[in-house]
Design goal:
Helices cover about 40% and strands about 25% of the residues. By secondary structure, it is α/β, with parallel strands linked by helices. Strand 8 (about 185-190), helix 6 (about 200-210) and strand 9 (about 215-220) form a beta-alpha-beta unit. Helix 4 (about 145-160) runs parallel beside helix 5 and helix 5 (about 170-180) packs parallel to helix 6 (about 200-210). The two termini are about 25 Å apart.
């Protein structure tokens, strides 16, 4: 891991880093020492590691819970170079939707493909960040909706260090079989009028989770209209299970 910049404000230290080919960011309490819970956050499609929603959640998790938070750019996003194969598939999918095909199955197939790369990348990020003295090998949580859910479900299913996860805005087509291997507590966010993920697919993904403790938070609105108050619920959820 190579840190490329470091800034601090309001008691929060922000460090940009490069790990192999993966650009990321780590937020921790300024002057932190010793182990603490770590949240890995997965950004949405077309976004990046410092998208406004990611930064807002990360800063509150650090300031109010004392956690560490890490986020990385997934392939083809943020500071990652363009991936010709992914770009080709995305262009083909746009053409297929324009020709009348359903969007949800195409999204599902694409996310399953990208997850084969991101799951091992994220596990390496966890290994490396937890080696830092001011993070340590404490419990791990995961937060990700939309693309962050499509990639997060296989990650949470594969990573035993994850003790709790907030997921949502994803459907069962890509993730139901993998979701059946998830047993940690899950808070699942669903937008009732989601134009990208059919409601039935979101509900089916929630149903597929094998977690003994799972909670569905369904709110009216379109795909990108998660109410601001859900951030308060996220903080309470992670504080309960990781703090």
């Amino acid at each position: 891991m190579r840190f490329t910049s470091e800034t601090s404000s309001d008691g929060i230290l922000e460090q940009l880093f490069i790990l192999g080919d993966v650009p990321g960011v780590l937020w921790t309490p300024e002057g932190a020492a010793g182990p603490r819970p770590l949240i890995l956050m997965g950004h949405g499609g077309g976004q990046h590691k410092k998208a406004p929603g990611i930064v807002a959640r990360a800063r509150r998790l650090v300031a109010e819970c004392g956690f560490a938070v890490a986020a990385v750019d997934v392939p083809g996003h943020g500071d990652r170079p363009k991936d010709e194969e992914y770009d080709r598939i995305a262009t083909e999918n746009q053409a297929r939707v324009a020709a009348g095909e359903e969007l949800a199955p195409l999204i599902a197939g694409f996310q399953a493909l990208v997850a084969r790369q991101t799951v091992p990348e994220w596990r390496t990020v966890l290994d490396t960040v937890q080696d830092l003295e001011y993070v340590g090998a404490g419990p791990v949580g995961y937060w990700g909706v939309s693309l962050g859910c499509g990639l997060g479900v296989p990650f949470v299913a594969a990573e035993p260090r994850v003790h709790a996860a907030v997921l949502g805005l994803g459907g069962a087509l890509a993730s139901a079989e993998v979701a059946a291997r998830i047993t940690v507590p899950v808070e699942f966010l669903l937008q009732w009028d989601d134009e990208r993920v059919p409601r039935a697919q979101g509900l089916a993904l929630f149903d597929a989770l094998a977690s003994a403790e799972k909670t569905l938070h369904a709110n009216p609105g379109r795909h990108g209209e998660i109410p601001a108050f859900e951030l308060d619920n996220t903080l309470r959820f992670f504080a309960r299970h990781l703090g």
